[in-house]
Automatic annotation (TrEMBL):
The active site is at D89, D270. The lineage of its organism: Eukaryota, Metazoa, Chordata, Craniata, Vertebrata. It comes from the Eukaryota. InterPro entries: Aspartic_peptidase_A1, Aspartic_peptidase_AS, Aspartic_peptidase_N, PEPTIDASE_A1, Peptidase_aspartic_dom_sf. Belongs to the peptidase A1 family. It comes from Capra hircus. Disulfide bonds join C102-C107, C261-C265, C303-C337. Pfam families: A1_Propeptide, Asp. The keyword Disulfide bond applies. Residues 1-15 form the signal peptide. This is Pregnancy-associated glycoprotein-2. GO terms for molecular function: aspartic-type endopeptidase activity. The gene is PAG-2. GO terms for biological process: proteolysis.
Length: 376
């Protein structure tokens, strides 16, 4: 019996691939430190208004904001393998990295892919363009071998960026999307779906544990779940539609008073965003409730009041998920504390890393549901 238990544990460990993730400073934090954040936002607003999102060949993610991507890990592309630092992002579905032929300044400070050095590379003439809320990449569709840990996806479609805007100070080279195929550039298949198709993973499931304070300690699990990273049982929430990791939120409250989502709303569970985004009106209510005042493009809170501010409660599928003030207020210095709530021109919420550091999250493509449980 003892040997059966040991063999079972070995089999389990072989089924789950655990990828270490590193928490980096976000572009927002880097630009803020350099006193460049306001200029960046103004330039991006001007640039994005000039870009058309109506082209059906373009993968458009207006809510995606590269400014707030924080958790990165390593993948390799090509033969021999070339390593890239990417954001594992549940809010998008495409994989892309900069090409050695990229002409943008941002590419000169990041690792680029030289397709001439890969024996398994296959180029196409098809354009590959992604429009984000805070930037864009423009390039070509290519195919090559991609490795995530010991998982191998052969002939994987990905984008090679020839031109990109809004990524100059990014602490990552590219993005690896883990959402549904419907969000991918038309005619391509996301890497998670390709791995499933090729039988590289035993279960169509992945999970994130995002460490609270440490730079290291965060992990992405592929093909299964290590339950030692959460407390209690997982509470399962069906996705709103099988197009993205959107779920229904019943209501949002503080001190027993509903301050948002009064009649239910949708929220994207998003590892690629560090903040909590929501419609401008309800977010403004939260800022008033916590006495936050405008500070350049952000909202400032008096640091001493953190200990007396109430938690924000997200009620999801009948269960309350509490986000305490210590989590939703960032202490930048002893005198500067900033709200992690950000208002947008949208009717949807985004539950980013502020929420996901508190709650271990599991993404079950087989049953189209998300599991949440308090993180250890």
């Amino acid at each position: 019996m003892k040997w059966l238990v040991i063999l079972g544990l070995v089999a389990l460990s072989e089924c789950i691939v655990i990828m270490p993730l590193t928490k980096t400073k976000t572009m927002r934090e880097i630009l803020r430190e350099k006193h460049l954040l306001n200029n960046f936002l103004e330039e991006q607003a001007s640039r994005m208004s000039d870009d058309s999102a109506s082209d059906p060949k373009v993968s458009t993610h207006p809510l995606r904001n590269a400014l707030d991507m924080a958790y990165v890990g390593n993948v390799t592309i090509g033969t021999p393998p070339k390593e890239f630092r990417v954001v594992f992002d549940t809010g998008s579905s495409d994989l892309w990295v900069p090409s050695i032929k990229c002409i943008s300044p941002a590419c000169h400070t990041h690792i680029t892919f030289d397709h001439h050095k890969s024996s398994t590379f296959r180029l196409t003439r098809r354009p590959f363009r992604i429009l984000y809320g805070s930037g864009m990449m423009n390039g070509v569709l290519a195919y090559d071998t991609v490795r995530i840990g010991n998982l191998v996806s052969t002939d994987q479609p990905f984008g090679l960026s020839l031109q990109q805007f809004g990524f100059d100070n990014a602490p990552f080279d590219g993005v690896l999307g883990l959402s549904y195929p419907s969000l991918a550039v038309p005619g391509t298949i996301p890497i998670f779906d390709k791995l499933k198709q090729q039988g590289a993973i035993s279960e169509p499931i992945f999970a994130f544990y995002l460490s609270t304070h440490k730079e290291n300690g965060s992990v992405l699990m592929l093909g299964g779940v290590d339950h030692s990273y959460h407390k209690g049982k997982l509470n399962w929430i069906p996705v709103s539609q099988t197009k993205s990791w959107l779920i229904t939120v019943d209501r949002i409250s503080m001190n027993g008073k509903v301050i948002g989502c009064e009649h239910g709303c949708e929220a994207l569970v998003d590892t690629g965003t560090s903040l909590i985004h929501g419609p401008a009106g309800p977010v403004s209510n939260i800022q008033k409730f916590i006495h936050a005042v405008p500070y350049d493009s952000e909202y400032m809170v008096s640091c001493p009041v953190i200990s007396i501010l109430p938690p924000v409660i997200f009620t999801i599928n009948g269960i309350d998920y509490s986000v305490p003030a210590e989590a939703y207020i960032q202490k930048i210095s002893n005198s500067l504390c900033l709200s992690s709530f950000h208002g947008d021109n949208t009717d949807k919420w985004i539950l980013g890393d502020v929420f996901l550091r508190l709650y271990f999250s599991v993404y079950d493509r087989g049953n189209n549901r998300i599991g949440l449980a308090p993180a250890v």
